[in-house]
Amino acid sequence: NAGVTQTPKFQVLKTGQSMTLQCAQDMNHEYMSWYRQDPGMGLRLIHYSVGAGITDQGEVPNGYNVSRSTTEDFPLRLLSAAPSQTSVYFCASSYRQEYGYTFGSGTRLTVV
Amino acid sequence: GENVEQHPSTLSVQEGDSAVIKCTYSDSASNYFPWYKQELGKRPQLIIDIRSNVGEKKDQRIAVTLNKTAKHFSLHITETQPEDSAVYFCAASNFNKFYFGSGTKLNVKP
User: In angstroms, rounded to a whole number, what is the distance separating the alpha carbons of residues A11 and A89?
Assistant: First the structure.
């Protein structure tokens, strides 16, 4: 199993550009989430999904969209990048809520 | 929503000493409490977890305790080693969402 795969690993965007961060898992996990990690602020939940076709907002959803058309994939879209979105983004998945999350390796995004 | 507070933000101990990290949560419906270790430049990795029907759980040198009445839980690391140096995150989960604390940077001095 590859686990949770995130692409790209690094990305530099200009303000106003859009892009999609990819996340795929091959463990047949129903639960998937996107987090952003900023220094001193831990991991903040952006969006999450409990299964294909079902998504919901987390703590900091503004400026991001998600969709879950398949169990395996959970892409995160930045609609119009802003410098405040400079961060490390982690995708995570879990079989069930009480089994904890497996994290991807992260995407380091810089918006200039 | 849930609010998870974690203390201390940094912790420095001598090799062989014990380390304790504490977290509090606000939502009494939270029922699952995992702990993650993140080494520099790496992804967070689950090291231990506890469910709300259990008061304490131990795995070799690490243990977690939970006090549901007071809404706090703690991570205990005994006989610390330099390889324990990392950032540790607590989290609280209620059904579908995981909320993380702000992290504790543990430095184990040889």
Answer: 11
* Chain A environment of B46 (Cβ under 8 Å): 100-102
CB proximity under 8 Å: A 19-48 to B: 31, 33, 35, 40-45, 48
Site of tokens 């940094």: B10
Phi-psi region of A51 (alpha: psi -120 to 50; beta: other; left: phi over 0): left
User: Is B32's CB within 8 Å of A45's CB?
Assistant: no
Chain A residue at shortest CA distance from B93: A97
Burial of A44 (0-12, 13-18, 19+ CB in 10 A): middle
B34-43 per-position pLDDT tens digit:
999 999 999 9
Q: Tokens at residue B69, please?
A: 């009445």
What value does the mean pLDDT take over residues B11-30? 96
Identify whether the C-beta of residue B32 lies closer than 8 Å to the C-beta of residue B2. no
pLDDT in tens, A26-77: 999 999 999 999 987 789 999 999 999 999 999 999 999 999 999 999 999 9
A-interface mutation test, from B96, B104, B105, most A Cβ less than 10 A away: B96
A16 Cα distance to chain centroid:
19
